[in-house]
Write a structure and sequence with these properties.
about 55 residues, two-stranded antiparallel sheet, about 50% helix, alpha+beta
Length: about 55
């Protein structure tokens, strides 16, 4: 339930507030996909999640 509540909260608070919220709660990991002002997809990953994801070489 807490994952669902956090996901909903992050979604409704908007990108900048979500980034601040996630920075204040390092126990929550997130991968956000959003569109920028030009309509291009962008990605935001929490620091903890970056450590968990290994890119292919």
């Amino acid at each position: 339930m807490s994952s669902d509540a956090n996901a909903t909260g992050v979604l409704v608070m908007g990108l900048e507030k979500a980034k601040k919220f996630l920075a204040m709660h390092p126990e929550i990991q997130a991968y956000l996909i959003y569109s920028d002002d030009k309509g291009n997809y962008q990605v935001f990953e929490t620091e903890g999640l970056k450590k968990m994801i290994q890119e292919e070489n």
